[in-house]
Amino acid sequence: MKIGIDAISFDVAKIHLPIKSLAKARLIDPEKLEKGLGLIQMTLPDVHQDVVVFGANAITKLILDHKINLNEIARIYVGTESSIDNSKPIASFLLPLLEQKFGENTLYACDAVDFTFACIGGVDALQNCVDFVRLNPDKKAIVVTTDIAKYDLNSTGEYTQGAGALAMLISDNPRIIAFENLWATNTKGLFDFFKPHRTILKSTITGNDNNDPWFDNLEAEIAIHKDQPVFDGQYSNQCYIDRTRNAYFSLKTLKKTSQTLYASWNSIIMHLPYAFQARRMLTEIFALDSEDHIVVGNETPIEFQDLLKEISKTKSYKSFVASKIQPGELASSLIGNLYTGSIFMALLSTLAHFYNSNKEIANSTFGFLAYGSGSKSKVFEGTIQSEWKIALSDVKLFETLAHSFEIDFETYERLHKKEQEKSVLNPKQEWVLDRIEKENPNLLGARYYKWMD
Q1: pTM above threshold 0.85
Q2: pLDDT tens per residue across span 194-239
Q3: For 331-344, what is each residue's pLDDT tens digit?
Q4: How confident is the model at residue 296, as a pLDDT?
């Protein structure tokens, strides 16, 4: 039985800041970001957009483009690390919007939930839905990944920001890719990147220690929400390497093979916090699983790292990157980090590249190396199906990205600081955040959305 992705759609923020503009403002050499990390521009949410908007736009496009009968959808599962509520999942926001557009009670029997494990949450949702359809082949599911990657101004993560969503229809006999039923996992509880609950003493705001009520806050500590993470870039990279390496070799064990695993993969699809992340992370796996026995195993840690740097400069590794990794980088360079959607955008980028190049890839195997901080990796495989081009005919990824609207640095900073009150672009044919309830005590903070024709 073949289970996998039958259709895919996306919605990426329609405004962007060129990386050169950011580099100039931050006194960074643009080549360090462009040629070193593969960054060209980063997308940013407009005033009327949030993760529900991106997710709703992506799933609405999926339904319209592929004429999906919502009565056949048993699950809508969301992968995200940008939740807007500690209780109510994004999936529960999507259901009423879809019913608003496609018919009341259309999804009354549909299961809905969010998956959170940093950037691997979307893969967790995918695996769950694949397993579900494998057990219930007459059912279909939709996986949505939606995130806004936001970092502090002047931080080392600032230039990797991005915003958007993808939606994927999971079914039996899929047209795009069918996944093998082997999922290798490696997990360890670490603090390489996280978004903790943060507080500030009320006394630092009020100037006294009396703990008097302050805007209905009775606690001595005031909770502060912040989208930006706490992270250690170098440590996170090492966690990424360690988890993916371990999961990769676990998959070899599951497959009971001694052959070089990546040699059998036409393309390698990875989580890309920035475009060139995969090529910088994979040298160790490339060396350790090489048929040429590049690594003999007697090096000191320092010598080993020096060896990996040398390997990254070799003709064989550069050829490996160009053929198996680079197609997945193309969209990331123009979008930025999509967190849970990053690995799926790498897949879509690869497919769109081959589609536009008129290259037939049916029956080829793709290898997936997923990672989520905290930290976990899953490595698995999929086979491209014969109708993949038909399913991709309406996606038009790079054509859409070419119409992104460029903003200046001043507008970027106003948006980041939430000082911009009016949308940069007037929304058309998309969902928007209409209002947030501020008066009704029983609905404080409730978010309402509407479709703009």
Answers
A1: yes
A2: 999 999 999 999 999 999 999 889 999 999 999 999 999 999 999 9
A3: 999 999 999 999 99
A4: 61
Angle between helices 342-356 and 326-335 (to 10 degrees): 120
Contact 70, 63 (CB under 8 A): yes
Confidence of residue 169 (pLDDT cuts 50, 70, 90): very high
What is the signed CA dihedral for 61, 66, 67, 72, rounded to 10 degrees?
Answer: -100
pLDDT at 290: 87
Mean pLDDT, all residues of the chain: 96
Q: Check residue 85 and give its pLDDT.
A: 96
Q: Give a three-class secondary structure readout of the chain.
A: CCEEEEEEEEEECCEEEEHHHHHHHCCCCHHHHHHHHCCCEEEECCCCCCHHHHHHHHHHHHHHHHCCCHHHEEEEEEECCCCCCCCCCHHHHHHHHHHHHHCCCCCCCCEEEEECECECHHHHHHHHHHHHHHHCCCCEEEEEEEEEECCCCCCCCHHHCEEEEEEEEEEECCCCEEECCCCEEEECCCCCEECCCEEEEHHHHHCCCCCCCECCECCCEEEECCCCCEECHHHHHHHHHHHHHHHHHHHHHHHCCCCCCHHHCCEEEECCCCCCHHHHHCHHHHHHCCCCCCCCCCCCHHHHHHHHHHHHCCHHHHHHHHHHCHHHHHHHHHHCCCHHHHHHHHHHHHHHHHHHCCCCCCCCEEEEEEEECCCEEEEEEEEECCCHHHHHCCCCHHHHHCCCEECCHHHHHHHHCCCCCCCCCCCCCEEEEEEECCCCCCCCCCEEEEEEC
Which distant-in-sequence residues (6+ apart) come within 8 Å of 320 by Cβ? Answer: 262, 286
Would the pLDDT of 81 be above 80?
A: yes
In angstroms, rounded to a whole number, what is the distance separating the alpha carbons of residues 72 and 107?
9
Beta bridge partners of 368: 269, 380
β partners of residue 114: 78
Whether the CB-CB separation of 77 and 125 falls below 8 Å is answered with: yes
40 CB-near residues (< 8 Å, 6+ apart)? 18, 19, 34, 333, 334
* Closest by Cα among 62, 60, 72 to 169: 62
Smallest Cα–Cα separation from 378: which of 234, 230, 88, 180? 180
The per-residue pLDDT for range 185-194, each reduced to its tens digit, is: 999 999 999 9
* pLDDT tens digits, 245-275: 999 999 999 999 999 999 999 999 999 999 9
Cα four-point dihedral sign 146, 401, 69, 361: negative
